[in-house]
Design brief:
Blueprint: E1 5-7, E2 13-21, E3 30-35, E4 44-49, E5 54-56, E6 59-61, H1 67-71
Parallel strand pairs: 1-6
Antiparallel strand pairs: 1-2, 2-3, 3-4, 5-6
Length: 82
């Protein structure tokens, strides 16, 4: 799952699953997607409900997504203070 490329319904690559978030209070897990950038430079992380992803033909699909629509989502930042 983590590391999988995410495509939209017209098979365009829109991101990659960087991490999964599961919290005790939420019943729906979330997927952290890395979008944009090249070789890790300029990459933005966004969160989408895991339930919005579908598996089709052994690919992770986020219907209706585009790189621009994902880049427009609020940026997710990992807590690095530990």
């Amino acid at each position: 799952m983590v590391g999988s490329t995410v495509v939209n319904d017209v098979n365009e690559t829109v991101g990659k699953i960087d991490d999964l978030i599961v919290t005790p209070s939420e019943k729906v897990p979330f997927a952290v997607l890395s979008v944009g950038g090249f070789l890790g430079i300029g990459t933005k992380y966004v969160v989408v409900p895991f339930s919005s992803l579908q598996i089709k033909d052994k690919q992770m699909v986020l219907p209706g997504a585009t790189k621009d629509s994902l880049k427009a989502l609020p940026e997710f930042k990992y807590n690095t203070s530990e």
